[in-house]
Amino acid sequence: MRWVRGLLILLFVLFSVTLTLMTVQVLDDQEVDNLAVGMRMPASVRTFDPASVAGLPAPAHRWLRHAIAPGTPLASTAELRMRGRWRPPGAEHWLPFEAIEILSPRRGFLWRANAWDGSFGLRWVEHYVDGAARERRALWGLIPLGTDESTELHTSYRQRLALESVWVPASLLPGHYVAWEPIDEQRARYRVLIEGERYPVVIRVGPDGALRAVATERLQRHRDGSWSPAPFGLAVEAEQTIEGYTIPSRLRGGWSYGKPETEPTIAIELTHAHFLPPKSPRGTGSPDSARPAAPTSSAHTKPQTGDAQ
Length: 309
Known about the structure:
This protein is an alpha+beta fold.
């Protein structure tokens, strides 16, 4: 019968398309997995000496003394698991997501997330590693929705990497890659060297040394595909102590950060974190040439108070 033959042809086409999409996804996954392996490469690091931050601006001095316990190995890579909600600019509803991130401020970041929009499952992969940036989105992890490797994306991801470095406090100790400057008693600015250019980030620190907020300017992509600079920042609502590091564990903020009329566009909660510690004998000093190895874990969470900027 003709209808049977037509149905078989249709099924064959659907099977072929599905197989092709699955093959492409497998290849993409392998590429991302290879990046992840490279970012986890261990190397020797030193341990934290509080005297190494003595000459920094007061807010930076308080925060780094609070964020790193004396004698803690200066890990340069963190592996993070998080969940939260994301709201695209101009949208009325939030998308819940769960994500895994490998963050190594000297090399980049690799962020893999699954989000849900009603009955639709969305998969995001965003990475900036060794100077190369890419963003990929797929419906149900199979149907491509878009890929971006633009020059603007590279710039925006470098700015993001600079801001997210607060999750790896040892990477912000003074040295060749990091320069600090004072603003006032609560705020300081660090400038991180990435691919030959300095990217500034402002932190707000409480009297107890706890990080209260972090902000910068990033290139933002609009719905029409254009890009423009915009404030981006996160208020720290809670922190967590893990393996000698005290890091933000609950954050809220997003684009146009700091403007009174602006609603948050992202809320993040860390569900797990660990740092890759040293492989070789420990010393003391700066982590400028440090790389990481394998972690242990214990943590507690403390809520934060204070304004968001």
